[in-house]
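Is ribulose-5-phosphate placement plausible here? Inputs below.
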Amino acid sequence: MTQQDEQKEAVAQAAAAHVRENLPQGALLGVGTGSTANRFIAALAPFRERLGGAVASSEASRERLTALGIRVVDLNEVTELALYVDGADEIDPGLSMLKGGGGALTREKIVAAAARVFVCIADAKKRVPVLGKFPLPVEVIPMATNLVARAFTELGGAPRLRAGFVTDNGNVILDVHGLAIPDPLALEARINQIPGVVTNGLFAQRGADILLLGTETGILRFERTRDGSPESKD
Ligand code: 5RP
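Reply from A.M.:
I modeled the complex. Tokens:
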């Protein structure tokens, strides 16, 4: 196992422990997508009977949860989730994230919006001072691909169509390289105004509340404070 994989496993186990300690028996859990989220799903197995069920952020996660015997519930049957647990491609010191490397950003944003607390699980490589080194994934209605791509070029980015990829919602992904993202909240809102954009991978308006970060020396925990600024709880 690589060091990065070890850190993913450690934060997945820590998030499962957080769920076991904080989620009331029989409550529903929001579950993210990706290799870190997959490890988290596996870590739920020992106490799956205590979960009322899960809302999945992708068909891939739905299949994994179902295979484990965890009931998957449609979000329309749920008014609120206590917790949402997911990975990130990048996370900044304000706990804003860049997500969508796995292409599940739209459903991830929807399920996250229904949750009271967003727990981000990430290995050390994901923590960055400023978002944007990882290309920004944007889900786009297929007929608007070229229109949206031109808008990103005007914004100073270099959009590339994710080849051979169709989202769970039947759309395409543009990965936008080279964007400077000093203000993720403002850029998230601006991109949402481009006609044809379904969702962009900036999670700033609804950032993480808790970050469990795997590092060489163990897990660091960061928590958003009441005034919105994150503080270390390690
Ligand atoms: C999927 C995502 C993932 O959370 C993100 O890509 C991180 O993935 P991984 O845990 O495999 O590094 O946003 O759409």
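Short version: The longest strand covers residues 115-123.
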